[in-house]
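To: structure subgroup
Subject: Chain for Friday's discussion

All,

I'm putting the inputs and outputs inline so they're searchable in the archive.
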Amino acid sequence: MKRTFFWGGLLAAFFWIGLPGLSAQDLGSEFDAGTPSTSSSGAASASANSPLVWSGDHLGVYHQPLWGDNWDFNNEALWPQMDNTIGIKYSSGPVKLVVNGTVETVASPNTWSQMSIFKPGETYLSWAPGQFLLNFGYQIYNWGVADKNNPSDGLNARDWAQGWDAPKVPLLSADLRWFPDRHLSLEGVLAPYQTPSQFPVDFQSSTQAGLNTGAAQLSAAGLGTFFPGYTPTASTSLPPNNPNSAVAGARVNYYSSAADLSLSYIYDMDPYPTPVVTMSSYAVPAGALGAGSPATTFWVPGQIQLVNKRIHRFGANVKTTVGPYGLWLE
C-alpha cells in the first residue's frame, strides 16, 4: 500500500497566562479534554495585571511524498503551509472578550504562487455574573474526557482538508452554564445553524464520476439500447444557513473526589453526507434478451443526492482513578 511520509518543521515558543482564583470558566473546563485553557506562543502585550493580553503562534508545515509515482501535491492536505495566528483577550470584571484569527499561506500545486487566506478563529464575548457563565460568538467546544476523539463531542464541524488532525471550525452559538455548587454544573448550547465540515474530496464530483463510469459500462456491454437517454446525476444538499439546521445541546456535569460524571445530548446535523438513491426503471420487452425471454424491467440509479441528515447524539462520560491508574470511559 502506498503511503505518504509526513514531516513538518515547527517553530514555536510557548508561554502561560495565569488566571487568578477559581472561576466558572475553570469549573466548566473540567470535562473539556484536549485543549489547554491558556496556551500560546509569542510574547504578552503587557504585565499579568493588564486587562489586555495578546498572543501569537507561528507554524510551518511541509509534507514530503515518499513514492516517486506519487510525487505531487495535488491534495489540499499535502500543500506546504505557513500559519500565523494572533489572539487578543480583554478582561474587565465579569466581562471578557476573546478574538482569534489565522492567516494561512499555502503553495498552489499548479503555479506554486503564494496564496494567503484569513480564517476567523474562536471569537466570543463572555459574561460571568455570579454562578452563571454566558458566552456568545464563534466558539470551540470540547465535550468528553478522551484526549482526541470524543464520541460525545459533535458540536463543531471539522476541517478534514487539513489532514487527519482536523481542526475544529468555530460554531456561531450561545453557551450558558450554571454552577449551583462546586459539585454540579449544567450547560446549554444553541446555534442558529450548523457549519458543514470541510473535506479534501468533492463527494459530488466523485459520485458523478462513478455514475458516468457505470453508464459507460452498460453501453459497452451492448445493453445501451435498453436504457435510452440514461444520464444519471449526482447532487449535494448541504445544511442550510437557517434554523432548519439549528443545533442544540445540553450537558450535566457532576464532580466529586471519587469520580467525575457527565451526561450530554446534542440535536445535531450529521457531518457526513448520506446517499439518497432514486432508481430509474426501463422496460425490456419479451424476447429482447434472447428467444423466449420474458418481458422484464431493469432498475438502475437515476439520481444520487448526498444529504446531511438530522442525528441525535447521547453521551456519557466517567473519569476516575483506580489505585495509581487513571480511568476514562466515554
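Points worth raising on Friday:
The radius of gyration is 26 Å.
Residues 1-44 have pLDDT under 50 and may be disordered.

D.
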